């Protein structure tokens, strides 16, 4: 029961908090691409890979009291913070933890901006293509973000770094 | 005349219960409709198992695909000569609209979940592989199949084109809401599409709606909301979906344990092995699937045979509301009690959550996680819909989720009234 929810809770239990819905979306996608067995399905959207399943599961976990969601008003937008609750921790105790350790992955991603994670997840979306074509694709679908060659280089390095974490 | 510009000598029309007529004048569109891969969509129901709840819901993805094409055709008629619209993209839009659901398999949702497949991958494979559809598209120009694939994959450079087929107010949703409402017979799902089409405007990278059309859009959002709870997420349909999923799991499990089926499930073998190729995927439609379910009713395995009997004869599981947080201990006790009662809990005690059927509500995309609906104000500024509409704001702020526990109540009732196990199960379930 709720095995996929439990996997997501393992994720939240590996960090103090996650700040931002967009960041959360991209982090889970990037982890999936690092062979972490999350089941949420993604599609490409205006802002890169996005999973409606993930959004719904997070809402369910909030409604069940397993995760707390705090809404903060910023200048032109709202920002959301997510944290595992005590109820969530108690629920997790019923499950065997079959997930690899995620602390280091998450800490590495948490240091980065959501704009950068949007770039990295977009690169990963096209990673079946040769690197030059990935670059072309990123410049095409993310023309308004004005990513530079240097950003892409940093992106590749970041992906490599994440994939070497065990 | 180039193939891409060729017109039929006379316009063809399909009579359609939702849009009255679907008009086809382009040779390319006519040829695409005639391909084997597109005709296959006649054998895939648009609403999967909903026909077991709403007996009229037998319409197919073929009907819906024609409907989406027709809506995009009408939008493009309205966009002609407007700023930001490039009529060179017309055929691309029409083709993508027609073909957007090409990769759907039988009872897509359950199949994809059990066999870990994604219909979008198969849509891409049909468009780009050795298929009749690909041959037609390639005649238009080299690279045209890739363009259509990019639009459907939402990775095409012109985001305005993408947003016609896929955004929070797109032709896909506008068709399925009305079509599903028509065929299920519910009174929700209706909205003034003609009005919305009249007030849609092409912008550089998205379709927007003039502010004066806000009330028509509100109606559309309400339709989405109501159709979700009344039709798409109907608890009885969910029960059928649960059983279907369990049938597929059981058949796969039996195959993996070297069980000998009375009739070798040749159409399923590649699915069980996790790697159906394109032709194997296309060969398995709903008619074939239901044929297997009929034959599996005679199988020796009591679980598979019972589940198939339930699906084919509509002997569905019953449900109760369930809270995984406060009822975790009860769940664990039930699991053991079901084992004791000889009912395999992995198949007969199922929690189904709203997220198991991802149907998207309208979301304002407050943190740029996805693009919202934008209203075009008289001063040419764009404003997100829920900032101007109280109705939409109140709906999009609601996070309604639920969990239900599905059980074969008939099997429990068959147990002796003297059984302590039965007594305790009933106590937990019904108090």
TrEMBL record, chain A:
Entry superkingdom: Bacteria
Descriptive protein name: YwgA family protein
UniProtKB/TrEMBL annotation, chain B:
Coiled-coil stretches: none
GO terms for biological process, alphabetical: dGTP catabolic process
SUPFAM superfamilies: HD-domain/PDEase-like (SSF109604)
Residue ranges of every copy of the HD domain listed in the record: 61-177
A Pfam family matched in the record: HD
Database matches in CDD domains: HDc
GO molecular function, one term: dGTPase activity
PROSITE patterns associated with the record: HD (PS51831)
Protein name as it appears in the record: HD domain-containing protein
């Amino acid at each position: 029961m709720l095995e996929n929810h439990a996997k997501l809770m393992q994720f939240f239990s590996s960090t103090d908090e996650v700040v931002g819905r967009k960041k959360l979306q991209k982090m889970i996608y990037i982890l999936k691409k690092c062979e972490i067995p999350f089941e949420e399905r993604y599609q490409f959207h205006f802002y890169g890979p996005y999973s409606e399943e993930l959004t719904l599961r997070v809402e369910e976990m909030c409604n069940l009291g397993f995760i707390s969601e705090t809404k903060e008003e910023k200048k032109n937008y709202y920002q959301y913070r997510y944290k595992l609750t005590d109820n969530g921790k108690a629920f997790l105790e019923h499950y065997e933890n079959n997930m690899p350790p995620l602390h280091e992955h998450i800490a590495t991603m948490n240091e980065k901006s959501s704009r950068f994670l949007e770039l990295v997840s977009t690169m990963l979306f096209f990673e079946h293509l040769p690197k030059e074509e990935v670059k072309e694709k990123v410049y095409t679908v993310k023309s308004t973000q004005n990513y530079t060659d240097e950003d892409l280089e940093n992106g590749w390095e970041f992906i490599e770094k994440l994939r070497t974490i065990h | 005349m180039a193939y891409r510009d060729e017109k039929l000598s006379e316009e063809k029309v399909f009579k359609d219960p939702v849009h009255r007529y679907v008009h086809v004048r382009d040779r390319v569109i006519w040829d695409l409709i005639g391909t084997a891969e597109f005709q296959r969509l006649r054998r895939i129901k648009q609403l999967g198992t909903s026909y077991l709840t709403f007996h009229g819901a037998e319409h197919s993805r073929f009907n819906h695909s024609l409907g989406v094409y027709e809506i995009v055709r009408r939008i493009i008629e309205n966009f002609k000569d407007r700023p930001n619209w490039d009529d060179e993209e017309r055929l691309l839009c029409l083709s993508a609209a027609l073909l957007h659901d090409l990769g759907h398999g039988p009872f897509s949702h359950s199949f994809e979940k059990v066999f870990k497949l994604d219909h979008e991958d198969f849509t891409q494979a049909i468009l780009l592989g050795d298929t009749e559809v690909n041959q037609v598209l390639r005649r238009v120009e080299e690279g045209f199949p890739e363009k259509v694939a990019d639009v459907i994959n939402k990775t095409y450079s012109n985001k305005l084109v993408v947003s016609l087929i896929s955004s929070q107010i797109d032709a896909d949703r506008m068709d399925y809401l009305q079509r599903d409402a028509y065929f299920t017979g519910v009174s929700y799902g209706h909205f003034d599409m003609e009005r919305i089409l009249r007030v849609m405007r092409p912008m550089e990278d998205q379709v927007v709606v003039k502010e004066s059309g806000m009330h028509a859009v509100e109606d559309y959002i309400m339709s989405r909301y109501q159709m979700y709870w009344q039709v798409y997420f109907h608890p009885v349909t969910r029960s059928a979906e649960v059983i279907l999923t369990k049938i597929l799991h059981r058949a796969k499990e039996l195959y993996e344990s070297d069980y000998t089926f009375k009739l070798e499930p040749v159409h399923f073998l590649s699915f069980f092995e996790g790697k159906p190729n394109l032709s194997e995927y296309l060969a398995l439609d709903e008619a074939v699937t239901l044929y297997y379910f009929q034959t599996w009713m005679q199988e020796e395995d009591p679980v598979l045979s019972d589940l198939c009997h339930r699906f084919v004869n509509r002997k569905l599981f019953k449900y109760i509301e369930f809270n995984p947080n406060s009822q975790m201990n009860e769940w664990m006790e039930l699991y053991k009690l079901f084992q004791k009662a000889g009912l395999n809990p992995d198949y007969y005690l199922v929690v189904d959550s709203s997220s198991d059927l991802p149907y998207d509500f309208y979301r304002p995309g407050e943190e740029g996680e996805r693009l919202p609906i934008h209203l075009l104000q008289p001063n040419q500024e764009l404003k997100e819909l829920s900032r101007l509409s109280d109705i939409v704001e109140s709906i999009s702020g609601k996070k309604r989720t639920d969990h239900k526990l599905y059980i074969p109540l008939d099997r429990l009732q068959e147990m002796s009234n003297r059984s302590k196990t039965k007594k305790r199960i009933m106590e937990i379930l019904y108090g």
